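WARN no homologs supplied; continuing
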Amino acid sequence: MKINKIKENFLPILLNLITATFLSHAFFKLSFNDWIYYEFEIYNKIENSTLDNYPFYLESPLFFIIKKLFSIENIDVYLLVVYLFFNFCIFLICLNINFLGQYGPIFFFSGWLVTCSWFLGYVDILSTLLLVIISKWILLNDKNTFIWTFLFLLLAFNHFGIFIFSIISFLFLSDKEQRKKLIFSSFTGGFIASILKNWYLDYINFLGRGRFRTLFNQNILDDATGFISEYLPSLIWSGFLGSIFILFLIVLTKEYKFSQKYIFSSFVALIGSGIVVDSSRIFSILLIPTIVFLIYELSKYKFVRSYTEKVLIIFIILSTFVLEERHVFGYVRNVSPNLDNESVYNFLARIINSIMKNIWT
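OK structure emitted
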């Protein structure tokens, strides 16, 4: 009995992990962000001196903290840690979507995985993990306010813009009786995160423009909203990928009173992406609560004919492979915009060859 129970719990997680690893490593393909070497140099400098220019992404302290915590001084070690951290978060995501049962793998057929795969070194993978966990706790109606507050604190500390818009999405998606606790937890977590963030910025002597201030640089809002109006169909596809067919199913077969929350939360994600130039990246992350809630709804959906469910899942998978990613980053891209540095695969091969050279020769 114990062996059967282990299989029941382990096999879905393994299927999730295989799906995520294949899509990220083989289909979407991984890439370090083009600024990662420069960021590493910045992290080295801010510990010892005042900078002439402070990039706004220093407001997200994840990898600076990791570098500081493990005293990383070598760029190859830093790149390896970034890669391993990505895979560790993917593993935790697989564990936390296990409550979706057999529908869990569908979650990886959505745009967030493209974003996290193409921008290794950005904090998006941690935002994704936190949004998945928060979505899970809301859907399972957990009563622990402390954990809710702690998760929102981490989300706000990691990326305050994602935090703000995701809260609005959660308010649309959650039940009425959950909203009071949601507002209290998010406000408390966000407030504490703001204090910690200010302490961190003082610690590194941050003198630059933050994310919010950067939005009002010349042409930023104009370019960002221009990208949405010009590439709207591609932007929507880039966020959902094949999972958009679940939204179609719910909207077309459920009463508007029920399905409107998914429409409104999608618009929140669209608005949030409308104030940045890397539109698809932010849109795909902000859509995560909506997609998790949609998949959960699919897991409870009563199909009139059993084959209809299979057809839907086939559509989700095949459409992702056939239409592929259409990522709006300046313009519509089918491949990663981060191709200037050594590829992840060549990097891993070089590291393995370096470690094994005395064994293989």
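The two ends are 49 Å apart (CA to CA).
OK
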